[in-house]
Design a protein that fits this description.
By secondary structure, the protein is mainly α. It is built from 15 helices and 5 strands. The radius of gyration is 41 Å and the shape is elongated. GO terms for molecular function: adenylate cyclase activity; ATP binding.
């Protein structure tokens, strides 16, 4: 999909959720061009082992790679694949930089010495080196990257939500899917708290891709999502460990759906938010129905079980401190019971938010109807007043024009009012009494 976007073969309308096909797929070379592949591999094969390993490490990173991370990952991976006499020596890093400088001179890499960053010129060149590695080599380097983000990289260097995203990305490439879902969700929460809803949606989209990988037949993980289907499987009943993993991953799915609804609320997309909340609530209810035998949903039972396990492991004369992550700010993946409690609390909030959204939609429809009716009433009143004004314009000015003509000396009678006024005026001049005397009744 990314290759098709780069070649302008398709375009994605995010607002409407539509993919437009701009070119014929048969006329597009989806692979890297042979010229780029030949250029990269001709220089890659002539490098020493340290430089080749540095290029592989740089190809695993999708962003700019700083010298500190390159030095740490290079020493760690080299000590695994080869024999490293002095791990603290910088000789290996210097050799890698010399070989990377040759690649930078031929337009394959970019080395930013003032900021101590390394990047590929294009994504195609990075993919050439990335595809050369064996899957085991890629997985090893991704795992060392995850250790770097989890234990070594300074937390103040990048925002916390980016830190969680990079850590989850590398964990997902090492088949540690549960941990990656946890950090993807944490990255989305941090991004929402910082007001970066677009990055939160990026984290949730990556988490959805991990869920699809886990549901695929070639995935090494248990098929937890297929158990939620309406069809009954003929396979044997899963073990307790598989059931626990299924419940844990399903809880992450509910959490991801809930966070997606929060992102849609931030984007004022109320209908999509209600749909995601309904999906999360439905998944939780179906899992409750399927797992009534183990009853992990009774909150009182879970609390009692946690208290009993803590009592059995509690020392008599010493108090152990709470287990914390070695890095301040990062948290271990919560237990299944803690995750269930968190998701249940989220679902309560989801139901309340859905009710408020639906009420706001009804109020908005009612207000829209009132505005439309008021508009039609205004049109009716204006139409009636326009008819009356037209009548006044036709009749009244005509009478006024006739009255003005009498005072201008016109001898022509053009209306009953003018004739009556002239008759009364003549009678007054002749001295004729126009009103009957008082006290005299007509016979």
């Amino acid at each position: 999909m990314q290759r098709l976007l780069e070649l302008e073969t398709i375009s994605i309308d995010v607002d409407r959720g539509v993919v437009h096909v701009l070119k014929d797929f048969h006329d597009v070379d989806l692979e890297v061009s042979l010229q780029i592949r030949a250029k990269v591999m001709s220089h890659f094969d002539n490098l020493n082992a340290a430089s080749q390993l540095a290029l592989r490490i740089a190809s695993v990173s999708t962003e700019d790679l700083d010298f500190d991370a390159l030095h740490y990952i290079l020493r760690t991976v080299y000590s695994i694949e080869y024999t490293l006499d002095d791990p603290s020596s910088t000789t290996l890093f210097v050799q890698a930089l010399q070989g990377m400088a040759v690649c930078a001179a031929h337009g394959i890499l970019e080395i930013d010495h003032p900021h101590e960053l390394v990047r590929y010129r294009s994504d195609d060149m990075r993919l050439v080196v990335y595809n050369v590695m064996l899957p085991s080599q890629r997985e090893t380097i991704h795992r060392i990257f995850a250790l770097w983000f989890e234990q070594k990289v300074p937390l103040h260097r990048i925002p916390r939500f980016q830190h969680y995203y990079y850590l989850a990305f590398h964990l997902s490439r090492t088949c540690m899917y549960n941990q990656s879902l946890h950090y993807f969700a944490k990255g989305a929460e941090e991004a929402l708290l910082r007001g970066v809803s677009d990055f939160a949606l990026k984290c949730l989209t990556a988490a959805g891709a991990v869920l699809l990988i886990m549901d695929s037949p070639i995935s090494p993980s248990p098929p937890f999502l297929r158990s939620l289907s309406s069809t009954k499987s003929i396979a044997p009943a899963p073990s307790d460990e598989e059931t626990s993993t299924t419940i844990e991953v399903t809880m992450y799915q509910c959490k991801i759906e809930f966070l997606t609804g929060l992102v849609m609320i931030q984007k004022s997309d109320w209908s999509t938010a209600v749909e995601t909340f309904n999906a999360a609530i439905t998944i939780l209810e179906r899992v409750r129905e399927m797992d009534k035998r183990s009853r992990p949903w009774d909150r009182h039972t879970r609390r009692l079980r946690r208290w009993w396990n803590h009592t059995l492991r509690r020392p008599t004369n010493a108090v152990l401190p709470a287990k914390a992550h070695p890095r301040q700010g990062l948290q271990y993946r919560p237990s299944r019971d803690q995750l269930v409690d968190e998701v249940e609390a989220y679902m309560v909030v989801a139901k309340r938010l859905k009710a408020k959204i639906l009420k706001a939609e009804r109020d908005r429809d009612r207000i829209n109807n009132d505005i439309r009716v008021q508009g039609l009433r205004c049109i009716s009143k204006v139409s009636d007043q326009s008819v009356n004004l037209e009548k006044e314009f036709v009749l009244v000015p005509a009478v006024r024009r006739q009255t003005d003509k009498r005072f201008s000396g016109s001898s022509r009678s053009s209306g009953p009012i003018v004739g009556l006024a002239r008759f009364l005026h003549e009678k007054i001049d002749e001295g004729v009494e126009t009103t009957p005397p008082k006290g005299k009744q007509s016979s």
